[in-house]
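Is this the right way to post C-alpha cells for a design question? Let me know if I should format differently. Anyway, here goes:
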C-alpha cells in the first residue's frame, strides 16, 4: 500500500506559536526539528505496519522544511513550492492519506496557531460546512478517491477532524492547546510512542478498507471570508468568484480540484492587498 503524508508543522510536538514555525524566526529550527520528529515516528511505524512506499509532501510555508537525509529508503519527499495541489500535491498516487502536524481551523478556541491556509482567512465553508485545512484537504483527497486514515496535531485539530470524518478516523493529540500560543506539552519520547501506536491503528484501518473517505455532493461550493474588505477587493477578480458580502467571496465548481485552485488563487491575491 502506498501511503501519502501531508506534513505541516504547527501541530508538531512542542510547538506552541508562530515564532517557532516561520523561517527566519528564532524558534524555527526547533519547529523544524519537531516536524521531523513526528514525521519519522509516523513513517517508521507505517513501514512496519505494511506500507510499501510513502510519499511525504512537505506542506508548511515554503514547503522545503524537511531534509531528505536519513529518511527510510522507501520514503520519497515532495519538497518546495509552487505545487498545483499545494498541501495535497501527489495524493492521487497513493491509496491512503495521513495528515501529520496539522492545526485547527481559523477561529478555534484553545488551538495552537489556529488558521486556515493564511492568517488573513477568517472563515471557510465548503458545501455549507465550516472547514479548515483538514476539511479542505480531505475533500480534495476524497474527490481523488483517497481516504484519510490519520490526523495528528493538538487536541483541537483532532476533535475537528473526528467531527468531520467520524469514528473510523484515527487521531493522535501530541499536545493540548491553552490558547493560540500556549499548550500543555508532552515530551517527544512520549509523543513518539503515541504517534507510532496511532499509525499502526490507522494502517490496520486502511488495509482493511475502513479508513473514511470524505466525499461531498457535487457541485462543490465554497464560501470564503477574509479579515478585511480590501483583501476581498483584491481577490474578487479571480474568474468564477461571486461576492456575497464586504469580506465574502464564493465559487462553485463540479471539479473539486478546480475549486481548490480557485481558493488558493483568491487567497494568494488577497495576501497582496
Ligand atoms: Zn503550516
Amino acid at each position: 500500500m502506498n501511503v501519502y503524508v501531508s506534513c505541516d508543522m504547527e501541530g508538531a510536538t512542542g510547538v506552541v506559536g508562530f515564532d517557532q514555525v516561520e523561517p527566519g524566526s528564532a524558534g524555527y529550527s526547533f519547529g523544524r526539528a519537531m516536524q521531523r520528529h513526528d514525521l519519522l515516528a509516523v513513517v517508521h511505524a507505517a513501514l512496519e505496519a505494511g506500507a510499501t512506499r510513502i510519499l511525504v509532501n512537505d506542506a508548511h510555508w515554503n514547503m522545503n522544511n524537511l531534509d531528505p537525509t536519513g529518511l527510510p529508503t522507501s520514503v520519497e519527499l515532495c519538497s518546495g513550492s509552487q505545487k498545483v495541489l499545494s498541501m495535497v500535491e501527489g495524493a492521487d498516487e497513493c491509496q491512503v492519506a495521513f495528515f501529520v502536524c496539522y492545526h485547527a481551523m481559523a477561529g478555534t478556541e484553545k488551538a495552537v496557531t489556529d488558521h486556515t491556509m493564511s492568517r488573513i482567512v477568517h472563515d471557510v465553508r465548503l458545501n455549507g460546512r465550516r472547514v479548515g485545512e483538514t476539511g479542505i484537504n480531505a475533500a480534495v483527497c476524497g474527490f481523488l478517491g483517497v481516504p484519510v486514515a490519520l490526523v495528528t496535531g493538538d487536541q483541537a485539530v483532532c476533535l475537528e477532524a473526528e467531527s468531520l470524518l467520524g469514528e473510523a478516523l484515527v487521531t493522535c493529540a501530541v499536545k493540548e492547546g491553552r490558547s493560540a500560543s500556549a499548550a500543555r506539552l508532552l515530551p517527544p519520547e512520549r509523543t513518539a510512542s503515541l504517534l507510532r501506536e496511532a499509525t499502526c491503528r490507522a494502517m490496520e484501518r486502511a488495509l482493511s478498507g475502513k479508513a473514511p473517505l470524505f466525499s461531498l455532493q457535487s457541485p462543490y461550493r465554497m464560501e470564503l471570508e477574509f479579515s478585511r474588505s480590501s483583501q476581498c477587493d483584491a481577490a474578487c477578480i479571480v474568474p468564477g468568484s461571486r461576492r456575497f458580502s464586504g469580506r465574502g467571496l464564493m465559487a462553485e465548481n463540479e471539479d473539486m480540484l478546480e475549486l481548490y485552485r480557485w481558493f488558493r488563487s483568491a487567497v494568494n491575491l488577497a495576501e497582496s492587498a
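Format looks fine. Someone answered above. Worth noting: DSSP finds six helices and twelve strands in the chain. The chain has a mean pLDDT of 98.
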